[in-house]
Amino acid sequence: xxxxxxxxxxxxxFETEIAEPxxxxxxxxYRGVDIDDLVxxxxxxxVWGLLVDGRxxxxxxxxxPFRVPMRTGDVRVDVQSGLAMLAPTWGxxxxxxxxxxxxxxxxxxxxxxALSFVAQSARGIExxxxxxxxxxxxxxxxxRFMTRWRGDPDPQHVAAVDAYxxxxxxxxxxxxxxxxxxxxxxxxxxxxxxxxxxGAMSGPLHGGAPSRVLAMIEEIERIGDATAYVKGVxxxxxxxxxxxxxxxxxEDPRARTLRRVARELGxxxxxxxxxxxxxxxxxxxxxxxxxxxxxxVEFWAAIILDFAEIPASMFTSMFTCARTxxxxxxxxxxxKTGRLVRPSAKYSGPGPxxxxxxxxxx
Length: 362
Ligand code: ACO
Known about the structure:
Citrate Synthase, domain 1, two-stranded antiparallel ribbon, 2 strands, CATH 1.10.230.10
């Protein structure tokens, strides 16, 4: 194959039993199970178990009392650097040198610690740490996460975050998952592989920005007319945030599932969001009959996270927590292949030449 596939689009580099979105049908299944059967119905740690182990038990262990090593003011950076320090701190061996069972247990431990780091970092240094005894009273990993962050979280907020984590836990060969697999393929340790994946979340093209959806919702609340607002945006040639998708040619299945969760939880912005969605879909269909422009995950994720009182500055870190599940599954799957990822590039630089021919030689 000598054709360059820019951005690896369409290249199938891995075989996976974990998940790959059904782009035409608008479905997402974790090891064959539709996400709608899982999100808001099966706790996140058991979804982690399904993705990593292929069964619901035993899932994730509770996180250990371990302080986040760095406080940079950016939660995602604190988590990436904290994870990178786990190998020397815990004496983790390279994935190459451990059994699949050991690798799986290390990934579980790293995942639980990543959530703990996010929670501690989100709480900030102004507030005292939540006592470990209080955290131990929490019911499940997401309740622990929210308790570490807030001390006494509203159970409805815990349920919202749990549903969001499961909805965003895995999405096939996306940039951060690919990154994690590449690093794992070198035989690196579990924490280094996860830390690298976290780094890929820092880019706005992957990390997501549901906050732009909320800005539009706030504007609709202010003017009180979703259709007029939608027409105004489109007349100005601007895009409606939370609609359209690069790969799905049908409704994003995560949007569908999170809409259901938002309704079940009674999210206060459910009605305005629904009015916005209805007006947007009608207007987009009328103006762009040639395109399928449906609701994407960011739209309803914004409503769910807003309901749980998650500040917009935390959205990327919440996405990071969720995706630790998919990363763990893929890192383990990659370790089992034992194969180094090493693609090729088509060279298009200068032909053979003397060093003296290069600018700056003298
Ligand atoms: N609002 C209005 N028009 C839109 C929208 C939108 N949200 N999305 C696409 N269009 C129009 C474009 O203007 C374009 O029109 P043109 O052909 O006249 O130029 C046409 O539909 C196709 O647009 P593309 O950019 O080719 O669509 P693509 O599928 O490549 O882009 C994208 C997908 C970037 C997500 C786009 O739909 C968009 O900008 N949406 C709004 C931002 C958003 O919601 N981002 C979150 C995506 S979900 C995620 O990343 C996990």
